[in-house]
Amino acid sequence: MIQVINRALDILEIIAVDPEKPTSLGEIADALGLNHGTCANIMKTLVSRSYLEQVGTKKGYILGAKSYALTNNDAYRKDLVEAAKSEMEKLTEVTNENCLLAILKGEKRIVIHSTNAEQELQVRTSSEKHVYDSASGRMLLAMLSEPDIDRFIAKYGIPKTESWKEADTVENLKKLLSQFRKEECSLQMLAGRQVIGLAVPIQKESKAVASLSIYLPEYRYMLTDKTGLVHQLKMAAKRISQRLK
Known about the structure:
Keywords: DNA-binding, Plasmid, Transcription, Transcription regulation. By secondary structure, the chain is an alpha+beta fold.
């Protein structure tokens, strides 16, 4: 039993050397001098417990969500929230709209902090949504590297028509993500709900670590200074990013 635990930890350590690059079963088994079948069984358990994530059939493995949760995930979230809290309060005060801070976790965008406006009609969104179903999730996906975007699409497919009809092919999805990345801003119109979502990236050392977003009713969006709203959102994200340096 102790030997199996040691081997499982060895596997995690090998993959953690380059956590964003998929490592094949063969590479891991050979590096540890393990029988491929034995190694596969251990890794299957690690995948089922979310300590590893398999990137498509025979494409390799990367660290899973549980591995990050064991390390600095909670402290990392705390640092993000501490850096963002006051800026989000100011942004909500200036725009009088709800503001969200979110991170990427697998196929989900997770809200880790929010500030609420005092409008009679407010837009509420769930704390967890599929990446494709939110402006913040789309922004976070757009800021990944090309190989990571390709891996995401290979694993989770393209959006369903009802959630993002414009992204109906891999080519169209990647074009939209490229546009978001270039503009450092994503816009989402929620069909049937008359809701608009705007999101921008928060960066640390040139890497997007979170997204800052505003959600508001479509009628208020149509009446507001759209350029000014995006500017306020980007400036708040920039100040938060500077605090993370």
